[in-house]
Amino acid sequence: MASSTKPALAVWKFASCDGCQLQVLSLDEVLLELTEVVEVAYFLEASSATTDGPYDISLVEGSITTPEDEERIAEIRRASRTLITIGACATAGGIQALRNFADVDDFAARVYASPEQLSTLATSTPIDEHVEVEYALQGCPVNGAQVVEVITALLHGRRPNIPSHAVCVECKRRGIECVMVAGGTPCLGPVTHAGCGALCPSFGRGCYGCFGQAETTTTSSLAHWWTTVLGVPEADLVRALRTYNAAAPAFAEESSAHVAPRT
Predict the structure, then answer these.
(1) CA–CA separation, 168 and 191 (whole Å)
(2) For residue 248, is it left (φ>0), alpha (ψ between -120 and 50) or beta?
(3) How far is the C-alpha of 44 from the C-alpha of 31, rounded, in Å?
(4) What's the rounded Cα separation, in Å, for the pair 49 and 221?
(5) What is the rounded CA–CA span in Å between residue 55 and residue 122?
(6) Three-state DSSP class for 187?
């Protein structure tokens, strides 16, 4: 059990690439400053030294893909006063949620020599489908500065200052010409949550939807624009919506509406 008078922070990994944890580690000096006010009690990506809970704040990366995951996230929830999900895997199932649209047994048979030895769920699901989550930070990977902002807000008892608008607002604030309206480039910016600083549009490319669905989305309108005005084939629209945040409700519903039913 944590013995420090400082709040205990834990960082947990489920099915993921570790990219969100690396974003936290890459904070460098900021992370060192953070350790002056919190005790990092569990963070295997950073240190093998761990302290038993309970934990004041838990950051969770990754999605739930196995029966063991279901049991472990329940244990972590019981040991955590505040649970924050970080990244696309934890908030929307991640790229591995592509299994949700197909037969996971067929995938396993194609990839593994002995698929019968696997213990896996048919779906990859976000953490909040299994336990209560106090705060969710989207992104593939998560924005490290936003992680610090949420932890700081919790320590000071205030509301986190995290933007809720779409990527389009970031483009306007940076004076970036709309790549879709002005250039005819397919872009997911109108339905994607802000957080990247409009990185791709700043280089003349369309948004790839790394930060998942915005709080208010009109994916049907965007899909109509893509297919009728820009002439994007429906198959390409589906592929665009089924990437890092494939299982985000708005993205999943819209992509499924453009897939021909199996016969």
Answers:
(1) 9
(2) beta
(3) 15
(4) 50
(5) 31
(6) coil
